[in-house]
Structure formats: C-alpha cells, structure tokens
UniProtKB/TrEMBL annotation, chain A:
Signal peptide boundaries: none
Subcellular compartments: Cell membrane
Protein name per the record: ABC transporter permease
NCBIfam families: Opp3B (NF045471)
Family classification: Belongs to the binding-protein-dependent transport system permease family.
Length: 309, 539
C-alpha cells in the first residue's frame, strides 16, 4: 500500500511537472505582456515593468524560476490585477468553487443512484422509461444551457431563487442543480445497467430462496454490488464538474476560480492562467488517486499492489 | 465500506456543506438610497498611478478627486482646486486649492499633488499612463531615468497653492488634470501600505465624494459609500453605489428585470432592440472610432488614393450600424468622434466634415476601383481582412467582405483573432487591412489626430502625408496657445486625412444602458472618468 501510494504520488508530481512545462511554453508562444500602452511608454519604463514581472530574463531562466516559485506556491503576480499575487487570487476564490463542486457531486451521485436503482427494479416499466429519459436529457443538455434555463424560470419568472450572485445558501441552489445534472445522469445510467445485471445473478436468487425480504435484498445485496463500479466514474465526473463550472460560475456570477479562469484567458493574464491550470490539474490528480484507493478498499477483488493470489 | 456508511458520510458531508453556505452573509442591503450598478469586468486596482482601464476609472473618479473634474459639454468644473490661472505664454498653471480632507481626516495639500504626480511619472512606479505628463516640464526625461523625479515641473507654494510648469503650451492640460494619474496621493498612505497600496479597499485613502468599501482585491462587488469628509458632501444625494460584476449579459438582463440591478450595459442587437424605445434606454456616447488601416508597406497598391477611396465608398455605414451591428453604434462621420469637442457650440465633426470620406456610393466606388487598378497595373487584389474575434469584429469582417467583393477582382479573406494577437499583428505590420479602434483619452480632437502623423507608433498602415503632419505639429507646437488657429489646424488635419482617405472610418462605438427610472442625474462622459455619481439621486 505504502509503495503503491509512493508510486502514485510520484506520478502525480510528474504529471504536474509535465503540465506546468507544456503550459509554460505554450504561454510563451502567445503574444501578450503586462504592458497596456506599449507604444507610448519609454524603453526605460517598458524595461522596468518587464523587470517587475521577471520577463526581462531569457525564457529558460524564467522557466526555472517559475518552477522553483511554483513549488513554494508562488505563481507570480497577476497581469490584470496590479500587485495582486496569483496565489492570493486563487486562494480567495477557490472556496465557492469547491463548495459548488462538492454539492453538485454529492447531490448528483446520490440522486443518480436512487434514479438508477428505481429504473432497474422497475425495469421496462414507465418508471424505467422516465429515469432513462431524465438521464439522456442530463447527458445531452450542456450545463450552461441548463443554467440559463434555470436562471430564467426559477430566478426571473418564478422568483423562487436568486438570479445570480453569492451571498448565502440560496445562491448555491441553481448553480448546484446545473452542475449536478451531468453526474446525476451518468450515475443513474451506470447504476441501472449494473443493477439489472446484479438482479439477474445467482446470489440474488439465493437470497430470495433464503426468504429475505425484497427491500433487504435490494439494499444489502443488489445495490451494494452495483455501486462498486460507480466509483470508477467518479474521476471523470469530477472533470465534468470542473469544466462545467467554468461556464456555470460565469452565468451565475459566482466569485470562484472557474469564473476567474475564463476571465484570465480573455484578458491574457498568463500568470493566472498558469496558476489555475496547475491547481486544476492537481485537484484532478488527487480525485483520481482517491477514487483508485477507495476502489481497492471497497472491492477486495481489486488489489492495488498488483499481487496475484 | 458498508452502504449505510456511504449514505451517512454523504449526508454529513452534504449537510455541513449546506450549513457552511448558509453561514454566508444573506442579509439584504437596504436598496433605498444605494444604486445597484452592473460592471462587466473586475476592478484591477485602486492605485491611481496604475489604473488604466475603465472599471478603475469609473470607481476612482468617484472615490478620489483631482484639481478639476469633468463637466457637461466637454467642460471642466472646480475639484480640489477652487480656481486656476494660466500664464500668458500658456506654460504656467497656478491652482488655488480649497481646504479639503482625506477620508482619514488629514488635510489634502499641494504637497499631495506634487507627491502623486511625481509618483505617477517615476519609472519605478511603472505607471502605464505616465505619457500623459509629457508636456509637464522634465517628465519625459524622468521617464527615461535621465532626470531626478524632484525636477518635475510641479511645485507646492505653501499648502494650498500648486504651480505647474509645462515645457510647451498645452491647451487641453485642464482635461488631463481630471484624470486618475493626476490625482493627489498621500505620501504617508503610500509608505504605510507599501506594496499593498491600492490592492484592496482598506489599503487606500479617498478624497472624493465616496469611499470604496468591501473590495478584497479579487471579489465581484464593491461599494462606493458616501464620504463624510468630502468638501462638498452636503451636495451628495445618495448613500452610495454598489458595483456588481456580471460578465454574462443575459444574467445582467435577468437581474435588471427582477429589480436587483438599477443599471446594466446592454450588449448586442437583441438587448438593445428590446430597450431602444424605452424610457430606461440611454445610449452613452463614447470617444471611440473604429476604422480600417491599409498596410501601405506590405501592399503597394494601397498607396493609390483611388483604391483607398473605392474601398471606403463601398461601405454603407448607415446600413451596417443599424442592421448588422444594431448595438447602439453610430455610423462614422469622420475620424474624430462626434460629441467630443466643440467650438462656439459647433461640433468639431461638423467643421471638419468631408462627405466623400464616409459616404456610400457603390457606382462611384467601382469607377475609382477600376481607375486605381489601372494606375497600379493590376487586374485584381487578394487581401486578408484582420479584426478582433469579438461579435462586433466578426460582424465587421463579414459585412465588409460582402461589400468589398462587389468590386471586380477583389478577393477578401477574413481573419478574426483574439485582441492581443490582433494587436501584435497590427503593430508588426502583418496584415493587409486591419479593423481597429481608438478611444480618445480626453475631450480634445488632438487625442485622435496625433495617431496618424508619419512616425507615430499607432500608425500601422504607414500612411504618410506631409500636410497632415504639418497641421498636427502646428496644433501641438506654434499654435498651441492660440485657440482659433489651433482649432483650424485640427480641422485641416482631419480634412486632409479624409480627403486622402488615409484611413477608412466605419463606426463610432457607443455604450447603451438600461437604467431604472428611479435613478436620476448620473453623468456620462465620452472620455476619462466615464461615470459621475456626484449629482445622482434616487426616487
């Protein structure tokens, strides 16, 4: 286990290093400087400004010092916000994003399990058809379209929820639903398929033969076994939520890092783009690592150390 | 892990998340005397020396105040300076300051102006607006590190008299002192906050009608709160203005319709169309012109005046702004934007109007095109049209492509790039025709006209005209202190540019707003500060 963890953490660091390197050099290929009035500044002033951002040095030196600083959590100074360290920008805005992501994940997956289970139990009835339709809609409607519709109907027309902004729990509901749709649909589909399989298996027959109640069978035997494979899709779902949040945060004006990411791209704020890419990459790697570990813990058939019996 | 523990864990997790969220501040602010205003971008800084964008300008010009302030009809009104005197040679300005206070109760003195200006010009501050000081004595030398900051031509004579020495007369200097880099700065505040100066609303002091509160440096809303120390506080009629960043236009519109916002920027033809005939509609004029530059260095054919004129005559500006853009923009009447400057009540653009420069006449265009092609010995041209990748940029290239391709033998390829890429290509001469825009810094035509002198770094098409250079140089030099002569120089310069079709103006951008009728008296300016809440009131 320790060996496996060490290996995974090594890969995590390696991935971060590669992503940082590629992003760094891609950014260098793009035009853009912190100078906003370049043509009107004296060469001395231009030089001084570049110096403040460390851009007067050769690219390889910039790269090395960027790496050294990034290890210490220092991602440089934003071009867009003067004198504002990127690490502060990120740390002050990551809270809302994490909260939304977490809520969407939990609600999406839990409801997805319930829907999927109902669909499987009432296979080929209207219940099944309804849950299938819901999951197809959830997968095919992009989160931003859902976000705009939710905002229009529940925010503007019904006035049931705030239209946008971030000051309290009520403000999190619509964006959470918009983000939860995808994980809900995915997990519902997944659980349904798995559970239909499981319900046809011998040990369910055996349980029935033993005289266990219907609910008991579903809860203790069928559902539990259908959930194990669900863990594998948690990683990809987390990615979905992260990318979805880029647009959803913008639509609901949530002061999170997704909104900041989009903003830094449109304003060519390279240090912020870099910093956020690294943070996103890190979060993703961690989610994948955790799901792999949990998978091994939950399902004894999977041995993370790779030894065969 | 048992299923029940999964459920328990998730329940605990979920409820704690909900609880955390509920802890946020959900108290509704009293909306009665606070205006809820939409901003479409974040506030980057409160450091007056470093602000260059419109969001900072809109906030700072209401929270801080310079010697003079912008007023209606391209005029200026007294700010911290009660009065001022200009010497006969136009080189010395003496400002008499009123007794006013900073938000921390300390007096605003002439020394604060001297310090603030020196800080804006000092190269180590890295102010990107330092060029605005170029007429102030020694400013250019200081920005090149060739003279000490203390040699800047601004001196305090006692606490309440400020003497400014210019290296040459500058009739529009009065407009410059209304802009943020010319605001006073308290040396003790700058030293106290150090590198955190202006990075959040507490690390700044204010001398304007409002103080900024609630800005953490990165968040999406901040408030202009009435400043009780302001010298004219009794004239302020509102409690404050809350700026809310809404980057998605549809969200902003929803919030406006729900009454959560009092004013929003309308974006695109659909939103403008919805409000165009309403009492809530306000189309704020901007000192902004979008035009085409033809790269004479890359394509020698563009050195031919008939070819340039043919392209200009092929554009139906009325139709384009009304039907294609539909976002409140106005058809170009010349290069300098209308409503920017006037003399004896007559707008500059009326004095300098050249019909052929902005007219639409396809038949004439085809004639001149054929003539021009013959003169340069070509059968046709293949050109690319470079523009921004914004909605307006794409509309522009698509429209122009259809119009231009009606000229026989002209093939147009469109190229829409992100702003900075587009800009770097324009500056490096990597284009045939580029659609670009200019926003004037202050309400004087010279803010536009200097761009197309032969050696100006913004003259990307490299159009050269000795007459034009002469008129602009006279306006900036020998006639600088003679209002009438200077005005005529500028009129002649604009006429020369249009008669020779040095550039092809297309439209003047405007900023359409929807403003709740309960809000009155907000003043919009085409340049500089942009917004003024000094006389705003709410019903």
């Amino acid at each position: 286990m320790v060996k496996y963890l060490a290996k995974r953490i090594f890969y995590l660091v390696l991935t971060l290093f590669i992503v940082t390197t590629i992003t760094f050099f891609l950014m260098k290929l793009m035009p853009g400087t912190p100078l906003t009035n370049q043509a009107k500044l004296s060469p001395t002033e231009q030089q001084l400004i570049l110096q403040q951002y460390g851009l007067d040095k050769p690219v390889w030196q910039q790269y090395l010092s960027y790496l050294a600083n990034a290890v210490h959590g220092n991602f440089g100074t934003s071009f867009q916000f003067s004198d504002q360290p990127v690490s502060y920008l990120i740390s002050s805005r990551i809270g809302p994003s994490l909260l939304l992501g977490f809520q969407a994940m939990v609600i999406g997956v839990l409801l997805g399990i319930v829907l999927g289970a109902f669909g499987a139990i009432r296979k080929n009835t209207w219940v099944d058809t309804t849950t299938t339709i819901i999951s197809i809609l959830g997968i095919s409607i992009p989160s931003f379209v859902l976000a705009i519709l939710l905002q229009y109907f529940f925010g503007l027309k019904l006035r049931a929820f705030p239209i946008a902004g971030w000051s309290g729990f009520m403000y999190t509901i619509l964006p959470t639903i918009a983000l939860a749709a995808m994980p809900l649909a995915e997990s519902a589909r997944f659980v349904r398929t798995e559970m239909v399989d499981v319900l046809n298996s011998d040990y369910i027959e055996l349980a029935r033969a033993k005289g266990l109640g219907k609910l008991g069978i579903i809860y203790h035997h069928a559902l539990r076994n259908s959930l194990i494979p669900l863990i594998t899709i948690i990683g990809p779902l987390a990615v979905n939520i992260m990318t979805g949040s880029l647009v959803v945060e913008n639509i609901f004006a949530i002061p999170g890092i997704g909104e900041q990411f989009v903003n830094s791209i449109t304003t060519n704020d390279y240090p912020t783009i870099m910093g956020l890419t690294i943070v996103y990459c890190f979060m993703l790697c961690v989610v994948l690592l955790i799901t792999d570990i949990v998978y091994g813990l939950v399902d004894p058939r999977i041995r993370i150390t790779g030894k065969r019996d | 892990m048992k299923l029940s523990s999964v459920v328990k864990l998730s329940t605990v997790g979920l409820s704690s998340a909900l609880l955390l969220a509920a802890c946020g501040n959900s108290s509704q602010e009293s909306k009665s005397k606070t205006i809820q205003w939409q901003e479409s971008a974040n506030l980057p800084t409160l450091d007056v020396s470093k602000a260059t964008d419109h969001v900072s300008a809109e906030t700072l010009s209401n929270s801080n105040e310079g010697l003079l302030i912008s007023a209606k009809d391209s005029k200026v009104a007294p700010g911290v300076a009660e009065s001022y005197k200009v010497s006969k040679d136009g080189k010395t300005y003496t400002f008499n300051l009123r007794h006013s206070k900073w938000s921390n109760g300390k007096p605003v003195t002439a020394k604060d102006f001297v310090y603030g200006w020196q800080r804006s010009v000092a190269p180590k501050t890295a102010s990107q607006y330092s060029y605005l000081f170029d007429h102030v004595k020694n400013a250019t030398e200081i920005s090149k590190n060739k003279a000490p900051v203390s040699s800047l031509g601004v001196k305090a004579d006692g606490d309440y008299k400020l003497v400014v020495t210019l290296s040459k007369p500058q009739s529009y200097f009065k407009y410059l002192v209304t802009m943020t880099p010319f605001f006073p700065q308290s040396e003790s505040a700058v030293k106290k906050f150090g590198s955190a100066y202006g990075t959040n609303s507490s690390n700044m002091i204010y001398n304007g009608p409002f103080k900024v509160t609630g800005w953490t440096g990165t968040n999406d809303s901040w408030t202009l709160t009435r400043n009780k120390e302001y010298w004219n506080n009794k004239a302020t009629k509102i409690d404050g203005v809350k700026f809310n960043v809404q980057k998605t236009p549809s969200t902003a519109l929803n919030e406006y319709q729900a009454g959560k916002l009092d004013a929003i920027k309308l974006v695109g033809a659909q939103q403008v169309g919805q409000y165009k005939n309403s009492k809530e509609f306000y189309n704020a004029k901007q000192a902004s012109t979008f035009y085409l530059e033809l790269n004479q260095q890359k394509d020698p054919a563009f050195r031919n005046v008939n070819i340039r004129k043919a392209l200009s005559l092929a554009i139906n500006r009325q139709q384009f702004t009304k039907n294609t853009l539909g976002d409140g923009s106005l058809p170009a009447v010349g290069y300098v934007s209308p409503g920017l400057a006037s003399r004896n009540g007559k707008d500059f653009t009326k004095d300098a109007y050249v019909k052929s420069g902005v007219d639409y006449n396809m038949a004439e265009a085809k004639k001149l095109w054929a003539k021009g092609l013959k003169e340069v010995g070509k059968k046709g041209l293949n050109i690319s049209l470079l523009a921004d990748d914004t909605a307006a940029g794409k509309n522009t290239t698509e429209y122009l492509q259809t119009q231009f391709e009606q000229l026989p033998g002209l093939k147009v390829t469109n190229q829409n790039l992100p702003f900075k890429s587009r800009l770097s290509r324009s500056q490096n001469g990597q284009f045939d025709i580029v659609a670009t825009g200019w926003n004037g810094d202050f309400p004087d035509p010279i803010t536009f006209l200097t761009l197309f002198t032969s050696d100006n770094s913004y003259n990307n098409g490299k159009w050269k005209n000795a007459e034009y250079d002469k008129f602009v140089n006279n306006a900036e030099g020998q006639d600088a202190n003679n209002t009438d002569k200077r005005w005529n120089d500028m009129v002649q310069a604009e006429k020369t540019l249009m008669n020779d079709q040095g550039i092809i103006p297309i439209y003047h951008q405007a900023q359409p707003y929807a403003i709740n009728t309960r809000v009155q008296g907000v003043q919009f300016y085409p340049t500089g500060s942009g917004l003024d809440f000094r006389n705003a009131s709410v019903k």
